[in-house]
Recover the amino acids of this structure.
């Protein structure tokens, strides 16, 4: 299979690139290694939405652009080169908008979907818990029936966008082996959030959400009671592939910096790019990046066709994120001592890449997903 950008895609990428250089880059520089303030996040999403990022997956009847996943992936990869933090914030937000379009009532869509698509509202999805990690069935957050609604008690952690979100798509246990999804509005529902400090991707908000007898009426239910596990597991395929896209952008940025530096830096009477060992590192970086890109866009093509792609998504997630760690490490090596300093972007690329081996299933969890798909044997406990 050959994945090549169409003429329309190339025009869209060029337009996005010019906007990123002109409007987004100055914002990103101001908030490097600090969380985008809520107002700044809204500003970024509003600008990105005009280019099909943040609401592009939502069909036109929902106010979005109805972009295919391949076209969307190309845009997100371009954004990830400039700011993986903004790209991560946008893809998590866009996933919440798509959940609302697919499962929300007409009234919920009327109230929240236009704001999500335009960036006036920020969305997120709350699944992971302190003791559960990738084991969704071990979820402890409960929503017990009470009158014409539910009362929610529990804690979610490592939730992207949570501290700045206007809309939280919550997955909670509503029965012994029954899970449901609710739209939580922090302005209407009593919750608490806390930001989590982390190694990299520090402009992208990540936090905890606490529910203490939080009352949610039936009108905020997404889909039917008991459909939450299916909705949540289906979203993992998309999430794993889009995390891999962030890795592509980071790796490409590191490779670009390394090629530029190798052409300019002189050592022993000539530019270091003329030395064989530096060329070998550059070659290895490019090979891994191209291989990762093929895996990722194969997964996107399957997503676009509506086919199951657990195997392909897990492969893309593992290879692209681990390759990004290796590529950014080599980029530091090429830059020598300068690569360790904060004056150059390489150490930040490395920290950002290292972050991506964890979310939406660690490398090891995704290896078990691949093993299960190939062998038909489940290595997960329970």
């Amino acid at each position: 299979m050959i994945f090549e950008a169409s003429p329309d895609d190339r025009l869209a990428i060029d337009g996005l690139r010019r906007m990123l250089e002109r409007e987004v880059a100055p914002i990103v520089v101001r908030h490097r290694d600090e969380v985008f303030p809520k107002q700044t996040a809204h500003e970024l999403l509003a600008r990105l939405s005009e280019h099909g990022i943040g609401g592009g997956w939502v069909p036109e009847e929902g106010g979005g652009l109805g972009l295919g996943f391949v076209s969307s992936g190309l845009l997100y990869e371009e954004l990830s080169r400039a700011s993986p933090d903004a790209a991560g914030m946008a893809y998590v937000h866009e996933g919440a908008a798509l959940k609302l379009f697919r499962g929300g009532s007409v009234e919920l869509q009327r109230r929240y979907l236009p704001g999500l698509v335009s960036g006036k509202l920020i969305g997120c999805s709350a699944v992971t818990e302190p003791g559960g990690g990738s084991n969704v069935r071990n979820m402890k957050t409960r929503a017990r029936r009470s009158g014409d609604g539910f009362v929610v008690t529990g804690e979610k952690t490592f939730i992207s966008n949570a501290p700045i979100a206007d809309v939280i798509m919550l997955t909670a246990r509503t029965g012994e082996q029954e899970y449901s999804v609710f739209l939580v509005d922090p302005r209407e529902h009593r919750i608490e959030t806390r930001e989590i400090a982390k190694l990299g991707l520090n402009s992208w908000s990540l936090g905890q959400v606490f529910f203490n007898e939080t009352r949610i009426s039936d009108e905020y239910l997404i889909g039917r009671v008991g459909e939450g596990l299916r909705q949540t597991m289906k979203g993992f395929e998309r999430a794993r592939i889009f995390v891999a896209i962030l890795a592509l952008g980071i790796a490409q940025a590191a490779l670009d910096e390394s090629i530029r530096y190798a052409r300019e830096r002189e050592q022993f009477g000539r530019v270091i790019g003329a030395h064989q060992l530096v060329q070998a590192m550059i070659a290895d970086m490019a090979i891994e990046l191209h291989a990762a890109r093929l895996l990722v866009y194969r997964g996107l093509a399957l997503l676009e066709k509506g086919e199951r792609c657990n195997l392909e998504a897990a492969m893309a997630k593992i290879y692209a994120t681990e390759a990004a760690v290796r590529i950014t490490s080599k980029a530091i090596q090429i830059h020598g001592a300068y690569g360790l300093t904060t004056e150059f972007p390489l150490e930040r690329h490395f920290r950002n890449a290292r972050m991506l081996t964890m979310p939406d299933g660690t490398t090891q969890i995704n290896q078990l997903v691949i093993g299960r798909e190939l062998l038909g044997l489940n290595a997960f406990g329970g």
Remarks:
- DSSP finds ten helices and ten strands in the chain.
- The chain has a mean pLDDT of 95.
